[in-house]
Each structure stands twice: as structure tokens, then as C-alpha cells.
Amino acid sequence: MPGSAMQPSHQDTVGRFFYAGLPRLSRHALESTLDVTAENQTQRDDARVVMDAGDIARALTRIAHEIVERNKGVKYLALVGIRTGGVYLAHRLVKRIQNIEGVQVPIGELDITLYRDDLALLKNQPVLRKTTVPFDLADKMVVLVDDVLFTGRTIRAAMDGLMDLGRPGEIQLAVLVDRGHRQLPIKANYIGKNLPTSREEKVQVLLEEGGEDDRVVIFRA
In what helix (H) or strand (E) does residue 158 lie, and over which residues does it extend? Predict the structure, then answer.
């Protein structure tokens, strides 16, 4: 709220953070680095499927096992999905971890819109969605979950948003697809598929929760 200070809550938090250490990009450069999501991109006839439903299911099962192994169980574990695709994947991972350990780990949903470093360059007003983290982050091993890792700017924004909510013991990162071309020194701990791409290509993750058949496609911009 302009002109007033608000304490962030665990239920609903929006905030704005400008990361002074990062250089601003031109409008053209920013637009060329944005990944395509199922909700804002129409289907392309030239899209090539690089992961089908079976590939996605197996990748998530493997990641769930890796998360449990790395954290030596689930005692301090929590998952936070980055809206929108990351939220869908986080819920699937929670179910798989429950099947492995017999325990449902806490899960949250994070909207990073107001933490982006390109807000001043966006043509249209961004759509704000709800952030819900209904647990105390202190000492938690928090796994951020996203669908595609590209430049790293979304993850940087997510970490800023998460730190505004509390001080986790550790932040880890799980992604379904790592397509390379990092602009920040960010690396995923858990990766479903490493996918070499060119900057002229777009990667789109389509999921049943978004009304599509599960698949990952790639196409020319």
C-alpha cells in the first residue's frame, strides 16, 4: 500500500524489490528471454514434443526420490511452487513424496510478479496472483519448484519473495526443464531434463491442471 509499511504475513504477501546490483535490460532483450507458458501462448503448428506425459511422470518421481535422499527424510522439508506451472508441479511432487515417506510435507504457492526486475519495461499491467505460504519458514529446507529454468531471473525474484516471508534454513531448486542461457549465477539442485536450446527457441510446459495433455514442447519464436 503506497505510503504505509506492512508486515508480510504467511498467508498473503505482495511486495516490490529492485535488485540494484543487476543491470537493466532493453525491452527487446527482456521480451526475448521470457519463457512461454500455457496460459498466455496459443498452440503452434511447428511445436516439437520433447517430453510426453510418461517422461514428465518419470522425471517427477525421480526428483521426489532425490529430494528425500538429499534432505535425509522430510522432517524439515517444505515445497513452494512458483506460479503458475511450478505450483502444479509442486503439488505433484508433494504427492510423490507422501507415497515414498508416508508424510505430507508443507506446500506453499508464490507469486513473483512484483519482485521482477523488468516491471518498468512491461507494456501491460501485470496480473497479480495470490501468495500462500501457510507455515513458518524458519529452519525449513525449502524446495522452490518451477517448470522451466532459463535466465535465472524468475528464481532470483522468487528467492527475494521467499526471504520477505521468513528465513529458511536452506533454499533448494527443482525444475522440470533446464534450457540453459543463464544470466545470473543460479543452478538447480533437481532437474527433470536438461534441454539444449537456442535463444531463438521457446519452451512451453503444458500440464493437465492447465487444461492440456501433459507435455513439453519447443518451437521457434
Answer: helix 153-165
Query: Smallest Cα–Cα separation from 83: which of 145, 24, 165?
Result: 145
Q: Looking at the domain assignment, is residue 1 inside a domain?
A: no
Residue 178 lies in a domain: yes
CA neighbor of 192 nearest in space, from 173, 211, 170, 209: 173
Query: Tens of pLDDT along 32-89?
Result: 334 434 334 445 678 999 999 999 999 999 999 999 999 999 999 999 999 999 999 9
C-alpha cell at 150: 532459463
- Element containing residue 81 per DSSP (H, E): strand 77-82
Tell me the CATH number at 198: 3.40.50.2020
Residues linked to residue 108 through DSSP beta bridges, in sequence order? 80
Map grid coordinates 512451453 to a residue.
204
Judged by DSSP in three states, 73 sits in coil
Extract the residue ranges of the chain whose pLDDT is less than 50.
Answer: 1-42
Examine residue 182 and state whether it is found in any structural domain, yes or no: yes
Residue with cell 536438461: 194
Alpha-carbon span 192 to 55, nearest angstrom: 9
**Identity of residue 198:** S
Q: How many CB atoms sit inside 10 A of residue 211's CB?
A: 9
Three-class SS of residue 163?
Answer: helix
Omega prior to 84 cis, within 30 of 0: yes
Please state at what angle helix 53-70 crosses helix 85-101, rounded to 10 degrees: 60
